[in-house]
Every structure is written in structure tokens, then in C-alpha cells.
Amino acid sequence: MPDWNRIRPAADNVHLSAGGSSAQIALRGAEPISWQVGGRELLWSGDPEHWNFHAPILFPRVGASSGGMVQVDGEFFPMPQHGFARRSDFRLIERDEASARFRLSDNQATREHYPYAFELDILYRLEPDALRLSFEVTNTDRRDLPYAIGFHPAFPWPLPGHGVVKDGYRVVFDAAESDVVPEVAAGGLLARRSRPVPIKGRELPLSPDLFAEALVFLDAKSRAMRFEAADGAAIVMETEDFPHLAVWSRPTAPFLSLECWTGHADWEDASGELGERASMRRLRPRQAGRHAVALRWEPGRV
pLDDT tens digit string along 255-272? Predict the structure, then answer.
């Protein structure tokens, strides 16, 4: 069994450019590790002192699995937090100056955790003020394929060019959201109890002490979130077919993460087959599931 924490990160990155903007996508995890607009670096640096990812792809699970395992046809398989895609090597399938497609197919290493045949394609398209991602999960197995997928980008907080103070930031949803969220239990599982959050309709004021754990908005009404500074400068995340949203940081970390998921961590009382776990999608043989995300920079008042 591979040790996902000791596998050397891939050295090869794919560079995209469009209208003065640029992006770097790593073959390891097909993860964007840089996104610059107007000379501003808008993705978190990946400083391991705080969090050593930038914007990982989560597949075939989102969050923690009960006991660190998933059950398929009565057999148990170890499942890393957020799945294995973020530490897997993708292949570059096609590219041009402003776009690139990456693919992860099942292999010996993936089948030790997830005994299914699949293809996961991620298409990046860079625009002068946006980075767009399209996800396609294809069932190449002879049986139904249960899966969850998510995107977990983090951004500098405070935003570049906005000093060193975190005050005055907020997340603005495109619809009013619940003012209670599930508590996160031991091991990253979701508890059946809730806790309040200081959201006021569509607006969530940000402060470092808000993030003892992630804020998980299950079955959210919104399809977009804005990470916004006091002067209106913002990174906007727009989603397509991602019903769950999350906002996360750490109290001492200089980043904020906006997340979108099709699935979520197991409930703390979860048991049974992977395909029966809450919020897992299911694809029939040769069927494909498609999802999309766009990150957009808005410079605010000049």
C-alpha cells in the first residue's frame, strides 16, 4: 500500500496564460498552485507551517470516512481524508496556451482504496480575470460507481495589496443561508448536533476565532460565494452541481478557503456500504457526472 504522505510531489507543472493573467497546474493532484491576475497571486502559497496544499481536488470522497475506511461488497478499504486524487499523479491529455485537460484513471494504487474502474477528467480554462474548472467523472466499471467530488481552494487573507490586517473581511453568499451548521466531531466526522454562526442573511463577517472547525453549509441555497475585503475587492467562486458549501481557515493561518462539494464527511454514526453513505452520487456503467467551478477576481473600488 502506498504511503500517500511520503510520495514525492511531481516536479512538472503546466503553465497557462491569457490576457496578462497566468496559472500553474501541478500534475500531482491536477492542483492549481498559482493563479495570478494583474501581478497579484490569488492562491494560498501552500506554506506547510499552516497548510501544505493550495487548491486540492477531492475525490472519490469528501471529508473523513468513518474509521478511516469505506466498505464495498462487505470488504473494508482504507480511505484517506478527502480521498486520494489530491496525492495522485494525473496525465496531461491536451493543452493550448490558455487551457489544459488532466486525467486520473484507476490503477493498482487507487484500487487499494477504491475498487472501481473510473476516469476523472479536469479541464482548466484561464481567462483574463477568471480560472474555470470542469470536472467529469466517468464510470468505466461494469457496476454502479459511487463517488463524491469537491474543490478546496484557499486564498491569501488579507488579499494581496490590502495590507496585513484581517479586519473588515466577509463572505457574501448569493442567497440567505442557515445560521446554524453541523458541529465537526472527532476525526473530522459530522455530528448530529449543530452550532450557531454569526451569519446575517447572505453575509458572514470573518474573524480568525470563527474557525475552530470548518463551517459546513449542507444543501446550501447559494451557488456562489464572495470572499470580500472592505473596499469591495473580492474573489468570487461560482459553482455548478455542487450542493454543499464550506468556509474554512485556522485561527492563526493567513488564508481563507471556500469549498464546494457534492458529498461530505460521514456522520459520526455512519455505517454500511459506501454507496449507501449520505450524499454519495451513483453513476451507471458508461455514465458520466459533470460539475464546474469558476474563480473570478474583482478589483473593487480604485
Answer: 999 999 999 999 998 888
